[in-house]
Amino acid sequence: MGDKERIRIFDTTLRDGEQAPGYSMNLEEKLRIASRLQALGVDIIEAGFAIASPGDFESVREIARHVDGPVVASLARALEKDLDAAGEAVKEARRPRIHLFLATSDLHLEYKLKMTREHALEQVRKMVTYARNLCDDIEFSAEDASRSDLDYLCKVVETAIASGATTINLPDTVGYSLPHELERMVRTVHTSVPNMDKAILSVHNHNDLGFAVANSLAGVMGGARQVECTLCGIGERAGNASLEEFVMAVKTRGDVLPYDTGIDTREITKSARLLSSITGVSVFPSKAIVGTNAFAHESGIHQHGMMANAKTYEIMTPESVGLKKTALVLGKHSGQHAFVKRLEELGYSLPHERIPALFEDFKITADRKKTITDRDLIALVESSSTGAAEIWHLVDFVVNSGNMITSTAVVTLSKDGKKYQEVASGTGPVYASLRAVEKIIRHPFSLEDYKLQAVTEHRDALGEVLVKISDGEGFYRGRGVSTDVIEASILSCLAAVNRMLDNSSYAAGQGLSARAMSFENDMLSSHSDKAKDREVSHG
Ligand SMILES: CC(=O)SCCNC(=O)CCNC(=O)[C@H](O)C(C)(C)COP(=O)(O)OP(=O)(O)OC[C@H]1O[C@@H](n2cnc3c(N)ncnc32)[C@H](O)[C@@H]1OP(=O)(O)O
Ligand SMILES: CC(C)C(=O)C(=O)O
Ligand SMILES: [Mg+2]
């Protein structure tokens, strides 16, 4: 860190950030954010715009009283009443700052301020002098600097410094600059304003074209040593430069950016989460550094690479931003390496030969569900581990059901590579499906118990069906899991049926035709009281 130049971080989450619709915060919330910013290690907290409202004045004053470490600033127009309010609000801060601004572009001067260039220059001289009599630390911002005449801008900066400004900020107020243009503006001011050595140069970039962070880096290369930014990049319109992106860019690319920001980057995630919980605005999942996907990998190829060496797909460690670990999220793009690893983490070391079938089930489930949770995985493993021989397999099924018709099910099962299909009807789709199963296997059984429950949350939850069947000799349990409850029902029934057939050695040589013969008896409703319970425990 020794030979690295220090970049001051000026956080304006509580001022420019709050100017974005939907981000208003009350006093207590602002105090919580301010103390987070202090923990993060920012150099300056812009706490608000004191003249804007009594609430804003109060917030700036309370933050000034509470914050210990960072400078506390209030924004002010180049007007005495604004400067008085700002000076009053920050006066109890251990390190107070007044931040005044006046636009310098002809567009703003002519249409908004209705001032000539000369008039504005005089106003800068007067108001900076006035402010300096209220506070020793004065920042002057030339609003819309990036669209201002460069010679005029230099004159304004020189005047502001001569009048007592200690920081000069050159905002790209409407996010119009390209990085090379912004660097040129900053470099020109830095090298051609004669008294520039008496002030720190700062940049404040908006994100209208998505360049806010790139422009901030460009500003630093041009000579800026203060960067204005906000948590998660919130702010007017498309927002400001995001603090976490700028800071992590400097840290991660230290090989070519010889700077240090003084930010404790391990506090970043906590800070972004606090902002989100206070404002109720969630962070976009793909948001750099703090989005939920920023350190998550779903694709098999990436997961495999990550398992070999995290540097293959991560340029920063999750720990460096305060996250515990990278998330290897299982989904339809995942591969067997990550799948097996996750199962092992969940305590399953399965025999090698069981993996392909299980992985196939996982992929089918993943096609239906957005994400696969640990509970989904456990359900898949548990439902597949019958312990019994797998005699009958489900190939496909179709049900036709409604409250005005008798439900009908067409079920296709396979056994020893051959397919068998049957049609059955019943009072509901589950009943019809199980009857079709019974017709195919040609081994009567009664349904003794049926339980359906959701294993996981959300609309695409896995449904779990537990059944108990009897063939008059014993009871057999089965478990089936699927996002489709009919499928879960058939699977659970087959698990029980396979146990039943395994137990009765039925599998040996029952010559079924390609299309199974239909059953006449409704064995699903039959029941044997005397049946001996020979349940097979699953799992
Ligand atoms: C680029 C930026 O982010 S600048 C900061 C933007 N933030 C905000 O505006 C949020 C807080 N603002 C407010 O609460 C209000 O706008 C107030 C209290 C500051 C002013 O309210 P009002 O007096 O009702 O004025 P209003 O907002 O309608 O218009 C702005 C006035 O300030 C003047 N003005 C704008 N910038 C400046 C400046 N830097 N210095 C002096 N006067 C300025 C405008 O010319 C206009 O003056 P006018 O009333 O004489 O025509
Ligand atoms: C008040 C100034 C610094 C500002 O927010 C801008 O120009 O974007
Ligand atoms: Mg701004």
TrEMBL record:
Belongs to the alpha-IPM synthase/homocitrate synthase family. LeuA type 1 subfamily. Keywords: Acyltransferase, Amino-acid biosynthesis, Branched-chain amino acid biosynthesis, Cytoplasm, Leucine biosynthesis, Manganese, Metal-binding, Transferase. Residues 7-269 form the Pyruvate carboxyltransferase domain. HAMAP family: LeuA_type1. Catalyzes the condensation of the acetyl group of acetyl-CoA with 3-methyl-2-oxobutanoate (2-ketoisovalerate) to form 3-carboxy-3-hydroxy-4-methylpentanoate (2-isopropylmalate). SUPFAM superfamilies: 2-isopropylmalate synthase LeuA, allosteric (dimerisation) domain (SSF110921), Aldolase (SSF51569). This is 2-isopropylmalate synthase. It holds the Pfam family HMGL-like. The keyword Manganese applies. The gene is leuA.
